[in-house]
Amino acid sequence: MCSRKCFRMPTLVICGVLLTIVLVCITGITLTNSINISNIVKLREKVASDSAAANGGHQAAQTRAALVEQQYSTLQQHHLSKSDLNYISAATHPRNLQRMLGTAQPQPQQQQAQQPNKIVIEIGLRSSSSSSSSSSNDSSSSNSIGGVNLMPMPHMLQAADALLEGNVDSISLPAAAPVTTPTPPTTAAATATTTAAAETTTTATAEQVLGIADHNPAGIQFERRAHVKQMMEHAWHNYKLYAWGKNELRPLSQRPHSGSIFGSYDLGATIVDGLDTLYIMGLEKEYKEGRDWIERRFSLDNISAELSVFETNIRFVGGMLTLYAFTGDPMYKEKAQHVADKLLPAFQTPTGIPYALVNTKTGMAKNYGWASGGSSILSEFGTLHLEFAYLSDITGNPLYRERVQTIRQVLKEIEKPKGLYPNFLNPKTGKWGQQHMSLGALGDSYYEYLLKAWLQSGQTDEEAREMYDDAMLAIMDKMVRISPNGLTYVSDLKFDRLEHKMDHLACFSGGLFALGAATRQNQHSDKYMEVGKGITNTCHESYIRAPTQLGPEAFRFSDAAEARALRSQEKYYILRPETFESYFVLWRLTHDQKYRDWGWQAVLALEKHCRTPHGYCGLRNVYQQEPQKDDVQQSFFLAETLKYLYLLFSDDSVLPLDEWVFNTEAHPLPIKGANIYYRKAPVALPASNAS
Ligand code: DMJ
């Protein structure tokens, strides 16, 4: 006997197929240059299944990389455009497209939650010129099929944010669940509560609008994320108002901050550093202003600036590379190459270890006078690999990779005292300078780039992973300690003496240890994870032991105190990101809610102490109830601090860690073989084959 269900089945199947076709068409509209979505989905499914099968195996990883390489060449003919990059927002990420297209395996709760699938969305942004509701006949802004109104996908994230920010006049979803009223933060700035309040006036959750929450038990924390976005707008708008085109903003004096690490030229450091964050947050208008400035004004030609090779690489080259990966806009690739070329004279040393500073006009290069007898600095020359390797791949010019590979070989072959890397190396003699070792200032990101070079290569650069493991095992043995009260910290080591002090800068290493554990299962992974969690916890302690709830520049461990700065010159906070970076990585890897809550605590503290009417400042002493502000809005506040906080409250599919690897300035770079935005330059055919 056949029940009524039997007859309903074919109808449902037909409806499902029709809906799928419609969604594919809509997707096609949003992806300019005729990107073949199903190819992308298939490619990604293939990558995912290969990844699962390979599970860290070197040979399998290489096969996987080769396979994807082949398919890239087809995709590259389509020259991916900006609109593709809306994938980086949750709503249009291929994983969600897969779900929407019905190609993903549904999870048990998902089927039930999707029953009322006739979603009717009436949406209008207050900022739009005429009516408050977009018409379903207006194909440029919405699509309507059989009573189902669908917004073009690239706008879905913005729509959800608009909903949360109170810019939406109406959204109606049949049978919508009531919105849960967010608990107003007790110490939040007024703006935070305003944002939260706006969210309670809607009749549907933004999760429903985006259609992703059902699939994501650890989904988006909308009100928190919307608040971080609003912080970014505040930082950016004030920079634009008072310091546009200059490097950084002085919020108290409402003028540019010049003469910092960027030298005295106007290089628009905040624009280049902060632009990918704007992009990720969907701040399209601001993003375009920044992009236009870079196109028209950014150049290192005809100026005689003395640039830091390291800072220029991580912020300018790194920033442009990410924007290139995101958008496929060749302007960014050209600018990245232009900047990197200006740095190349610094590599003309007997060892190939570059100097720290280079003059953009003369090419004259030198080291800092204070750095151990003319030495170069480990964290500086050791933090070029990701950007230079990627630049070679997208330009087809092997020179950049060769430069950093030379550095790698020197560091691989040199004898390391107790397996550790001192912070100073003389570029002329190839000998170590002072035997100071640190996972904080002067050492930090070298270790980060070992692991990340391996990740960036699609886990094929085994040399990098081995060097990472060797270094971190030595560090765990010789420098990681546990305080009498159980706090894990990484001490500095000077010759044979431990200095029981940890820099704020070293707080990134919580995430680094954890990432090392999560990406390769071996006899060390449990210990890595334990140390990673321990360090992150200690950095959080350094924050909450200060009345401002913000952490000092360095903190010590002694009989007198734990995780507290003891010297006056260590008590400042300059809007640094490292602790939030570790919260973000640990959140992604563990989904332990405490990391999000710690991040939110920090947001509230930033709002209370660092926010001014004209941007954000650092603090001179985190141990004072009402600390003095330092009048500098660091470019890394926009590049890193706000980005990591935004991502902490985002869904995992926004810049997933198996597809993107963050450079040390939080500029995400695509992972080879796993990310369709790698955009490797086509390999030129030898002349004989060209016909
Ligand atoms: C950033 O420029 C980078 O994270 C760098 O690696 C270290 N310091 C700052 C932020 O604190």
TrEMBL record:
<keyword id="KW-0812">Transmembrane</keyword>
<protein>
    <recommendedName>
        <fullName>alpha-1,2-Mannosidase</fullName>
        <ecNumber>3.2.1.-</ecNumber>
    </recommendedName>
</protein>
<feature type="region of interest" description="Disordered">
    <location>
        <begin position="126"/>
        <end position="149"/>
    </location>
</feature>
<feature type="active site" description="Proton donor">
    <location>
        <position position="311"/>
    </location>
</feature>
<feature type="binding site">
    <location>
        <position position="664"/>
    </location>
    <ligand>
        <name>Ca(2+)</name>
    </ligand>
</feature>
<dbReference type="InterPro" id="IPR050749">
    <property type="entry name" value="Glycosyl_Hydrolase_47"/>
</dbReference>
<feature type="active site" description="Proton donor">
    <location>
        <position position="553"/>
    </location>
</feature>
<feature type="active site">
    <location>
        <position position="444"/>
    </location>
</feature>
<dbReference type="GO" id="GO:0005783">
    <property type="term" value="C:endoplasmic reticulum"/>
</dbReference>
<dbReference type="GO" id="GO:0000139">
    <property type="term" value="C:Golgi membrane"/>
</dbReference>
<dbReference type="GO" id="GO:0004571">
    <property type="term" value="F:mannosyl-oligosaccharide 1,2-alpha-mannosidase activity"/>
</dbReference>
<dbReference type="InterPro" id="IPR036026">
    <property type="entry name" value="Seven-hairpin_glycosidases"/>
</dbReference>
<keyword id="KW-1015">Disulfide bond</keyword>
<comment type="similarity">
    <text>Belongs to the glycosyl hydrolase 47 family.</text>
</comment>
<keyword id="KW-0479">Metal-binding</keyword>
<keyword id="KW-1133">Transmembrane helix</keyword>
<keyword id="KW-0378">Hydrolase</keyword>
<dbReference type="InterPro" id="IPR001382">
    <property type="entry name" value="Glyco_hydro_47"/>
</dbReference>
<keyword id="KW-0326">Glycosidase</keyword>
<dbReference type="Pfam" id="PF01532">
    <property type="entry name" value="Glyco_hydro_47"/>
</dbReference>
<keyword id="KW-0106">Calcium</keyword>
<keyword id="KW-0472">Membrane</keyword>
<comment type="pathway">
    <text>Protein modification; protein glycosylation.</text>
</comment>
<comment type="function">
    <text>Involved in the maturation of Asn-linked oligosaccharides. Progressively trim alpha-1,2-linked mannose residues from Man(9)GlcNAc(2) to produce Man(5)GlcNAc(2).</text>
</comment>
<dbReference type="InterPro" id="IPR012341">
    <property type="entry name" value="6hp_glycosidase-like_sf"/>
</dbReference>
<feature type="disulfide bond">
    <location>
        <begin position="507"/>
        <end position="539"/>
    </location>
</feature>
<feature type="active site">
    <location>
        <position position="578"/>
    </location>
</feature>
<feature type="transmembrane region" description="Helical">
    <location>
        <begin position="12"/>
        <end position="31"/>
    </location>
</feature>
<feature type="compositionally biased region" description="Low complexity">
    <location>
        <begin position="127"/>
        <end position="144"/>
    </location>
</feature>
<keyword id="KW-0735">Signal-anchor</keyword>
<dbReference type="GO" id="GO:0005509">
    <property type="term" value="F:calcium ion binding"/>
</dbReference>
<dbReference type="GO" id="GO:0005975">
    <property type="term" value="P:carbohydrate metabolic process"/>
</dbReference>
